Sequence to fold (108 residues):
Amino acid sequence: MNFLPAEPKGGGKWSVAGQTVNGPTWSAPLKFAIRPEDVRPGDHGLPATVRLVEPLGAHLLVTCDIGGTMFRAVLDSDLTLKPGDSLTLTPQEDRLRWFDPATSLAVA
Fold:
């Protein structure tokens, strides 16, 4: 699971890695969480810098830096990526999870 800090913007909107993401109505900072297989390269989303690419047959395990935090993505092996490349990762919104960093409990 990948975790990124999330700051509330009000009305269920969150700032995650400089991007606005829909989330729960909550007034304190949370942790945005998503599994590596639940992101795709896209035109909008989380800006990432590739640090390591591991070919795994039909997939690539890509370790990235997003806002100073390590982030892993499982992507299609037909992508050509190398360390230092920039890409944008679009999370599947129905697969997002949110956690309270003070209690580690999930927030709905």
User: Anything to note?
Assistant: Residues 2-99 form a domain with the OB fold (Dihydrolipoamide Acetyltransferase, E2P) fold (CATH 2.40.50.140). The two ends are 17 Å apart (CA to CA).
